[in-house]
Amino acid sequence: MVLIETVGNPSLELPDLPKIIELCKQYETLLVVDNTVTPLTLRPLEMGADIVIHSTTKAMSGHSAALGGVAVFRALQEHDKLHHQKYAQLHPIVNKMKKKAMIAIAKKRAMRDIGMSPNAYGSFLTMLGLETLALRLQRVHTSIPKVVKILEEKLPSNIKVSHPSLKSNKYNQRFKSDFHSACGPIITLECENKESAFRLLNKLKLVTQTANIGDNRTLALHMASTIYRDFDKNTQKYLGVTEGLIRISMGIEDPQTIAEDFLQACTN
């Protein structure tokens, strides 16, 4: 099984999804795609993925008010990769459940152990968020290029902004072709060190410091001291997490106002 994110978090690496899907088909390997960052923008099942997962806590909810997740399974076909001998232990379920076999496999195994029924109120809040998902994504995707352009032009030379929409970014061409010029809400700032990153964060007036992404509000977080605090240095380096890295999740506020908030925090 191959498990990938559509967008590296927080590295902002953009994988070659068509190539990965092609290889998984060639070697009859199951492909699970975490599409949390790019709902609606990318449709991995239509591209050839086997299972797509989302953290509904993020963009789908949009308010940091409900915990949840969802797994979406493709229907099995007559000559499906799951009929391969290496999946022999699953054949009794495959032969019995046919097109719905993947759902049954998940219920019998992972969901049996971790649960599959979200709480009612959290589900209600997520459903409310879904009603405005397309509008919120459109706002974020139009705001990000404006914000990163301003920051690239006006940030002090010791702070670097990164996003695939920038022409200087090595994933810019893939961003425009495979990702349709939209790859979620994440932007990163690279400061000189942890201390300078904290100084910047503490001077922000409008941006909220918290660990979520995909919120209506613009969020920012120092990665090495929070989510990746327990990772060793080699693993942090492999994941693109440095001592000065700040992850930003763009919200639906006015992009000029958000850019100015970061600029004042850098220059004061």
Low-pLDDT regions: none
What would CATH call the homologous superfamily of the largest domain?
A: Aspartate Aminotransferase, domain 1
Number of strands: 9
Rg over CA atoms, rounded to whole Å, is 20 Å
What distance separates the N and C termini?
49 Å
**Can you name the CATH architecture of the largest domain?**
Alpha-Beta Complex
- Continuous helix count: 11
Spatial order of the strands in the main sheet?
A: 5-6-9-8-7
The overall average pLDDT, rounded, is 94
Domain count: the total is: 2
Element string (H = helix, E = strand) = EHEHEEHHHHHEHEHEEHEH
Helix content: 25-40%
Structural class: alpha/beta
Could you say what the CATH topology of the largest domain is called?
Aspartate Aminotransferase, domain 1
Biggest sheet record: 5 strands, mixed
Classify the beta-strand content into a percent band: 5-15%
CATH class of the largest domain: Alpha Beta
Shape: elongated
GO molecular function, one term: O-acetylhomoserine aminocarboxypropyltransferase activity
Cofactor: pyridoxal 5'-phosphate
GO cellular component, one term: cytoplasm
Keywords: Pyridoxal phosphate, Transferase
Summarize this, please?
One of its GO terms (cellular component) is cytoplasm. By secondary structure, the chain is an alpha/beta fold.
